[in-house]
Specification:
The chain is of the alpha+beta class. The chain has 9 helices and 9 strands.
């Protein structure tokens, strides 16, 4: 009887130990699950860091400046000629210039013999293409303007610069007529100074000056006369030109 009781006691002890082990495993599993959930939100890594990184190509695309009319870059086109302004107008209005057709109109190409015509056409087309490509990401123009000084306005104390007469425009020829209109010309029209300074300026200039202006492109519009590039004067400097002795007389910023 005692042996049987001992066997029962031994089995009960084993079952009790197994129960305790089972409870411990369940508790450990529960704690492990809780730690996993808690650690996912509190291990110092933000939800943004959990997101997969963008591929380099996607990052590059995100940094691209949108193209097309109304999107202007940071590059400056300095002292452009007629052809450069035509190319810029095509760029700003999202049009592809007919480079090969223009190349074929050049005298050296048009009158070339049959042995050299193809090579000359190719070379001229590439020359025009390089001019067009130089207008990429242009958002500013640097221009040199001729101007006259008005009679001294003693009531307001200063001269007027004819280059910035309100309502005026700057016109270019080229393959297609292009003009520039500045919305804030009135802000640069008047050059304030006292009478003594005005006399000194007059002695240096005989009323003829040049204005070097940086223009921010703000938009384009099409008219029957051609493309109009609209902009604002960002800054400008006034120079004398007397006796080919150029001197900077004043600088202004309109930003």
């Amino acid at each position: 009887m005692t042996g049987k009781f001992q066997r029962y006691a031994f089995l009960a002890a084993i079952l009790g130990a197994m129960s305790l082990i089972g409870c411990g495993n369940a508790e450990d599993a529960k704690q492990t699950e809780t730690a996993a959930v808690y650690g996912a939100s509190n291990n110092g890594a933000s939800s943004e860091e959990k997101k997969p990184a963008k591929p380099e190509s996607a990052k590059a695309d995100a940094n691209k400046r949108p193209s097309g009319s109304g999107s202007f870059g940071d590059n400056v086109l300095s002292y452009p000629d007629d052809l450069q302004m035509t190319m810029l107008a095509y760029r700003l209005t999202d049009r592809a210039p007919p480079l090969e057709a223009w190349a074929g109109e050049e005298r050296d190409v048009k009158y070339a013999d049959e042995f050299t015509k193809a090579d000359k056409l190719k070379a001229e087309t590439e020359r025009l293409r390089s001019i067009y490509e130089a207008t990429a990401d242009v958002g500013f123009l640097q221009m040199r303007l001729n101007s006259q000084l008005s009679q001294y306005d003693s009531s307001k104390g200063g001269y007027y610069l004819t280059a910035f007469s309100p309502g005026g425009s700057f016109n270019f020829g080229g393959k297609e007529p292009v003009s520039i209109q500045l919305d804030n010309m009135g802000d640069a029209f008047f050059w304030p100074m006292d009478a003594e300074q005005a006399q000194e300026i007059l002695a240096l200039t005989t009323r003829r000056v040049s204005v070097d202006a940086k223009i921010r492109i703000t938009g384009t519009t099409r008219r029957t006369s051609g493309i109009v590039i609209k902009g604002d004067i960002a800054e400008y400097a006034i120079y004398s030109e007397r006796y080919n002795d150029e001197r900077q007389l004043a600088t202004f910023s309109l930003e």
